[in-house]
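2024-03-11 09:14:02 DEBUG pipeline.ingest accepted 1 chain
2024-03-11 09:14:02 DEBUG pipeline.ingest length=263
2024-03-11 09:14:03 DEBUG pipeline.predict start
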Amino acid sequence: MKPKSLMSELVAEVFGTFILVLLGDGVVANVGLAPRLAGTAYNWNTITIGWAFAVIIAVYVTGGVSGAHLNPAVTIALAVKRGFSWGKVLPFIVAQVIGAFIGALGVYLVYREGLVSSGMPNVWSTGPGSVFGATFWGGASEGALGTYSLVNACVAEFFGTMVLLWGILASGDSKNMGLMHNMGPFLVGFTVLAVGLSLGGPSGYSINPARDFGPRLFGLLVGTQGLFDGIYWLLPPVLIPMIAGPVGVYLYDWFVSSAFKDS
C-alpha cells in the first residue's frame, strides 16, 4: 500500500475536526437556542450524546487516513509515548485548529438567524459566558449555584482528558480486548459521552484545545462577547489537556500495558 502523504493526513485532520465541531457545536446551538422550547429545555444529556456521535462520525470518516487525532492533546500524547513523529505535531495541530474554525463557520451558517436574534451567544467554546453557563447557572434555571473556580475547572479538564486518552488507547490496543479499528470509534465516542456526563460540569469538558480555540476565534470574529476575557480561555481548555494527554498515556502504560510485557 502506498504510504499516505503528510498533506493527505493534514487534509483529513482538517476535515475530521470540521465534522467534529460542526456536529458538536451544532448540538450546543440547537439545544441552547431551543427556539421551540425556550431556555429551560436546555438538556445536558442531549449535548453529551451529540458530542459523542460527532466524535464517532468524525473518526470513522478520517481515521483511515490520519488516525483521526482531531485533538492536539492526542497528537502530543502520541508523540510523547507512541512514536508519532514530532515533525508532524505542529502541522497536525494547525490543521485541527483550522478544521475547528471552519466547523464553527458551518454552525454559524446553519443557525445564523437564531444566533443573530439571540445576540450571538457563545455556542462556540467552553467556560464563562458559554450557553451552558448562561442557561444552567443563571436566568431561567432556578436554584443556580454559581460557577466553579479556575482551579476546579483545570482539575476537571485534567481528569477528563486523561480518561479520553485511556479510551482512545484501549480502542486500538490489540493486546487488551482486541477491539481495534472496526468498533474503536464507538469506544472513543462513548468515552467522550462518559466524560461529559460524569466529569464535564465544572468546565464544560473541552478536553481538546483545537475544539475550543478554533471556534473561539470564529466567535470573536462574528461578535460574541467575552471569549478572551481573562486567562480562562488559555488554561482549562488549552494548556491543561496538552499536559493531561501525555500523563494519560504514561498511566495507561503503567497500569495496563505493563501487564502484557511478559505475555
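2024-03-11 09:14:41 DEBUG pipeline.report Confidence is low (pLDDT under 50) at residues 135-145.
2024-03-11 09:14:41 DEBUG pipeline.predict end
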